[in-house]
TrEMBL record:
GO biological process annotation, one example: transmembrane transport
Organism ancestry: Eukaryota, Fungi, Fungi incertae sedis, Mucoromycota, Glomeromycotina
Subcellular location: Membrane
An annotated GO cellular component: endoplasmic reticulum
Topology term for the membrane: Multi-pass membrane protein
Keyword Membrane: yes
Protein name: 9014_t:CDS:1
Keywords associated with the record: Membrane, Transmembrane, Transmembrane helix
Keyword Lipid metabolism applies: no
Matches recorded under InterPro entries: Mem_transp_PIN-like (IPR004776)
Taxonomic source organism: Dentiscutata erythropus
Regions that span the bilayer: 52-72, 78-96, 108-126, 232-252, 264-286, 307-326, 332-351, 363-387
């Protein structure tokens, strides 16, 4: 018998997972306050995370959890991810107009709305609901065990992680890339006093999208892969490995000849998330306080989109399109999660990579994870209730 909504309670592992993340941030904050983590140390840790730990984390997780067959059969995951990305971008542009933001601030808002925490937060959530009767609502077959239900959901989340990381470390890094202030100055083309100076500087100028004055340069910048970075290289390399099963078998199969190499990469990658949280806490203390006119408005708008607007859109889109793909309640649940939850912690790594909007992302993430427990719990209870009724 399927449990009623009164049986649905948030799993305690989910709360513990959030508490652990917040405690790591507090340790980083305390370390900075005691001058153990200085600004130079913080920068070194950020570089290590971006260039070594995060690439290893992405590679090890992707090659061990995804196959080419799963990529094809679970097409709703990339399809809905694309739709949610487009909707998030539109919301960011609308918010930029409403708050009257400049080009760079609009890109910050878009980045904060598009990229949510798909991996660590929702894996903890799945592990949490495994110990409640609510997990039976997400069963696909009769007499399916809670452990098997959660294992299936975990594979869906990890598949979604592939697409989020590919986009995050390409589009996200590109959006946050800092452009010199002079790029936004409109220089009269026929002005003799400025034409020579403009021509001399033109080759050094790198234009970013939205409000750049050289759209052709934007396209050339993107096509010449100037947005590439170590995490994106790692994700693409992992995608290459899973596309060739025999190559992937060298790393992760039983008695694989390169198993030791994979285990070393996996071990190094396990440091990425804790170290990111530690540096995030240190940044909250070390970074100078921003005096941007619209900072509070930007953060409030991103939080509103992430915790209210996007979950509502996700619930409506998924529950009214279930007849077009496999009848799996866990898949519906994960698809709705793709539209829900706080901004991804790794966005602070994007800010560190670009050396841009570091303080804004630190503040955004701080408030996001304070609000995460009540808002995500409400979304989960609501979604489980409606999935149960739909069945």
């Amino acid at each position: 018998m399927t449990p009623t909504v009164k049986n649905i309670k948030p799993g305690w592992q989910f709360d513990i997972s959030l508490a652990a993340d917040i405690n790591l941030c507090l340790i980083g904050y305390l370390g900075a306050k005691l001058e153990i983590i200085t600004t130079n140390t913080q920068q070194d840790l950020a570089n290590l995370t971006i260039k070594i730990f995060m690439p290893c984390f992405l590679f090890s997780n992707i090659v061990s959890s995804i196959t080419i067959g799963r990529l094809i059969s679970l097409w709703p995951i990339p399809a809905f991810f694309t739709v949610f990305t487009l909707i998030s971008t539109i919301l960011g542009l609308i918010g930029g107009k409403l708050i009257r933001l400049n080009c760079a601030d609009i890109k910050f808002v878009i980045t904060g709305i598009i990229f949510n925490n798909v991996t660590s937060l929702f894996l903890g959530l799945l592990k949490g609901i495994e110990n409640t009767s609510a997990v039976l609502i997400l069963s696909w077959k009769e007499n399916e065990s809670p452990k098997h239900i959660v294992k299936r959901g975990t594979s869906y989340v990890l598949l979604a992680t592939l697409w989020t990381n590919l986009l995050r470390w390409s589009l996200g890094a590109y959006l946050l890339k800092k452009a010199p202030e002079k790029d936004e100055e409109v220089i009269p083309q026929n002005s003799p006093s400025t034409s020579n100076q403009f021509q001399a500087n033109n080759d050094q100028v790198e234009i970013t999208p939205l409000l750049g004055i050289h759209p052709i340069s934007n396209i050339k910048t993107f096509l010449t892969l100037k947005f590439m970075n170590p995490p994106l290289y790692a994700a693409l390399l992992a995608l290459f490995f899973i596309a060739i099963p025999k190559l992937n078998a060298l790393l992760i199969d039983k008695d694989a000849p390169l198993m030791a190499v994979y285990q070393a990469i996996d071990y190094i990658g396990s440091i990425a998330i804790p170290l990111t949280l530690l540096t995030l806490g240190a940044e909250l203390y070390n970074l100078p306080r921003s005096h941007k006119e619209h900072m509070v408005s930007m953060i409030t708008y991103v939080l509103t989109c992430r915790y209210i607007i996007m979950p509502v859109i996700g619930i409506l889109l998924v529950l009214y399109t279930t007849s077009y793909y496999i009848n799996d309640p866990m898949l519906w649940f994960v698809l709705i999660l793709l539209a829900s939850g706080p901004t991804a912690i790794s966005c602070v790594n994007l800010a560190q990579l670009a050396n841009n909007y570091q303080e804004e992302f630190s503040a955004l993430l701080f408030y996001s994870y304070i609000l995460a427990t009540p808002f995500v719990t409400l979304v989960v209870v609501f979604v489980l209730y409606y999935i149960e009724r739909y069945q």
